[in-house]
Amino acid sequence: MQATSPRMQLGQLPSGLLDALASRSLPSRAIASRLSHGRPTQRRDITVNQLDKSSDHRERVVILGSGWAGYTVARQLNPKKYQAVVVSPRSYFAFTPLLASTSVGTLEFRTALEPVRSRRSNVNYFQGWADVVDFKNKKVTIEESADDPSQGLALSRGNWDEIKSDVKKVALAKKGKTFDLTWDKLIITVGCYSQTFGTPGVKEHALFLKDVGDARKIRNRILLCFETAALPTTTDAMRKNLLNFAIVGGGPTGIEFSAELHDIIKEDLARIYPELMEFYKITVYDVADKVLPMFDEDLGKYAMKTFAREGIKIKTSHHVESLRKGPPGDDNAAKDIQDEYPCWTLRVKEEGDIGVGMVVWSTGLMMNPFAEKALGKIPSTPESGVKYISPGSKMSRSSLQWAVHKEPRTGSVITDDRLHVLLESDDEHGSKQRAIMEDVFALGDCAKIEDTTCPATAQVASQKAEWLAKRLNKGDFDKGGFTWKNMGVMAYIGNWNAIMQGGGGGSVSGRAAWVLWRGAYLTKSVSWRNKVLIPIYWFLNWAFGRDISRF
Amino acid sequence: MQATSPRMQLGQLPSGLLDALASRSLPSRAIASRLSHGRPTQRRDITVNQLDKSSDHRERVVILGSGWAGYTVARQLNPKKYQAVVVSPRSYFAFTPLLASTSVGTLEFRTALEPVRSRRSNVNYFQGWADVVDFKNKKVTIEESADDPSQGLALSRGNWDEIKSDVKKVALAKKGKTFDLTWDKLIITVGCYSQTFGTPGVKEHALFLKDVGDARKIRNRILLCFETAALPTTTDAMRKNLLNFAIVGGGPTGIEFSAELHDIIKEDLARIYPELMEFYKITVYDVADKVLPMFDEDLGKYAMKTFAREGIKIKTSHHVESLRKGPPGDDNAAKDIQDEYPCWTLRVKEEGDIGVGMVVWSTGLMMNPFAEKALGKIPSTPESGVKYISPGSKMSRSSLQWAVHKEPRTGSVITDDRLHVLLESDDEHGSKQRAIMEDVFALGDCAKIEDTTCPATAQVASQKAEWLAKRLNKGDFDKGGFTWKNMGVMAYIGNWNAIMQGGGGGSVSGRAAWVLWRGAYLTKSVSWRNKVLIPIYWFLNWAFGRDISRF
């Protein structure tokens, strides 16, 4: 994953500290308040009416999503000025850069999580999916999803057509319980789905690494593969299949996961299943001719050298065609025994059928169906909060058919450099009309500033979120637009090595970069609870080994 | 749960320390070996042939089960003298006294787990269910179950008939892959199932607290109930149902869980969902006229007073008749809306239908089907290792129809005071013949010493296991039989209070007992990793509150 460089981290630490002090989250303060039994209880709201009552003339900011953009902006809005309401199917924020570590047990899962509801924030929260957005009446309809089985898992669809048919199905399907929520300002941070390019079998059989539920599946799967391979009933051929781990996608996520996988095998499983070491294999596939494209050539070379030494195969210019259950060989035969042989067959154009114990899929993002479903044509624009750019009479404007401006290729929501959502329309003369929704913002992976090319990363999302929260708190949008400070990228490459490239172009690699990598994420981690737990787990797993209990 | 008193714990600590020293598990040793890259790799065996090869004339001890009895005896057998092989569907040992704490997040789940496979033990392990036991040829047939979905969950059946039909079904069903394992000594520690007395709906809808998977289900369920109750689409009536928590069974497990549940609500959820506090309710039901029967009257009274103060209702002499999905009221109506209303209806003879958000069922144990299935009649006894007690010619003896001696009422396997499994038979004159299987032992919840009444507790199981490991290591069974040292019982009763009753009859209650309670379990916990993590989590959750992320 991409991350901000330590420079910025250290710059941020003080504010983080003040933050924590202000919120009584430092041990000393907590202890004091414990002893005095003096911890005030925060009022939170359970019904929309109560929200209205308790808003006392503050503007309500409804935030759709609880990822890097949504969680950050919600926590940084000034509660005296705004009533922040987060609506998300996921009740926690996942610190994505640490997911790869949790997926092999280098860290415990919860060290990468922060609940949206917290004693230490003033954020209101409803668990649900935003469904219909009524821009005219500034109202969003929410379908509650407290018991959503997909919570914690990456969402993926085969392809665009499937998403469109999904959207239709959802539209037709009997709704779960829904409720309406009005906003003064709306912030759209719904994120993206995992991209599978419609590759057959991938969304059914591959594992992703986008949320903590995915990480747990992967951890259990790795240990299950070794446990099954250790059974006397398992043939050597099947052992080769079960312990053949394929990672598809050579971006930071795929690379960091393969490095962490190598670490747990070399440092822990090698001692517990020494007799299985001859069977395991880690391979990273990518269609491009190089992995880690965002790094300079020499850093890329360094990573490749490290991987070669660690025995991780990197296969560029390879095309994955399908993934199916059962071992390679005659499909029918495979169907019969697929249940007793828990392995899969990956078909690679350049290599044919390969038996694998696990495929971790990390080939990037695709548009969230929400954008397709709720952010299309706008029946009528609101009276206020819309700034019409191009000339034309007010009459004609409201009579025009407006639609949210989206990038045709990706479906990303296009915003101006203030992160306002843009509308467009063809007027009666067929010429483009444009408008700015001044109370509706979009950021994170689902959005894009017009004519810019920021990558869809946590770094950009959190910078936008911090910028937007500041502007809203100060009310100084006139001061100028958002500009991305490239803080550089870093990636863990295994065996206590990392590569790091500063925004300025400077680069570090090896053990030093690894220290900076850990330092950066430790500093960036949100709660003091996790700032304490993370180094403790780093130490314990180094001293005693990772926990291999599987449940 | 019942636990051993601190006296014994402290007595044990030194041996635990030496243990750890010997096994290089102390940080200093681990660090040293890390730095010198000098950690020896232990040889483990993946096939039965390899086991045979690597046994080098040691006796093979096959241990069925990885609970208190099996895990303890496996770790304490002298590896120079015996080749220990654990066969269990569960790849880890669960430290059951801490499960209640993990079920509300006072401790993280893994702090209550120890993997059977460990760098620091010489134990071989196969994941599977013991299936057929061939006493004559000293051979057990194992059905592999690495991918068993029930791993981590309490096992329960409606009643005896259902178990018997299960056994028939299993016998008829197409087997998974199986393999044979021969033993020189067999130790049966398969434990018990959860008792439901055939109460309709319980095994489908109730949650148990016997394994870490149960604890995780409970933790998610509690948080889901509050999150759902916080939705504007939830009526107040449904909030009452969702936040009505019923515990069935007033033994230590049920009582400790209700206390932990009270703690997380009062200490954490009250701050996060203050507006829901008017709705929640905790009730413990028991058919008996008192709870915690194993404690003296004054300790029981103290516990009741504490619970009354904490607002936990104790309803003795109450009879639970059924549990079904959906809210109370007309059954058909309930069926229609049961999906959108995730609550249950508990029918209590004395109270009628009650809407509940969660039922935790803890009414004791019932026999493991394995005893019914594999430990019945014995086609023919082995040549050696059987000691015939009552008179009669050897001829007639081997021609007799022998069966494992079991308690008719409970189905427990009966052993002598050396923990040897007993056989019985009717000879031609209709008089009882008895025999001792000198190489087959049974202990833990599935076994019982003839004419004794030790409770089925972790304390008894681990004392038997330690005794048996010592005898086997020293070979001095002639030195006398096992006698249980009652180390007393203790129970956490919430709000930093506990009750404790020494084996001698002395008793402690309140904060002091709570300190001893924590001290005892911290001392008793197995690995140094957990000895470090447990107090850290105790502190962090006290200072920052329990983590409420749900995934």
TrEMBL record, chains A, B:
GO molecular function annotation: NADH dehydrogenase activity
Domain External alternative NADH-ubiquinone oxidoreductase-like C-terminal: 488-547
Keywords: FAD, Flavoprotein, NAD, Oxidoreductase
Segments forming domain FAD/NAD(P)-binding: 60-371
Bilayer-crossing regions: none
Keyword Lipid metabolism in annotation: no
InterPro entries reported in the protein's UniProt record: FAD/NAD-bd_sf, FAD/NAD-binding_dom, NDH-2, NDH2-like_C
GO CC aspect terms: mitochondrion
Domain of life: Eukaryota
Sequence similarity: Belongs to the NADH dehydrogenase family.
UniProt name for this protein: FAD/NAD(P)-binding domain-containing protein
Organism: Lophium mytilinum
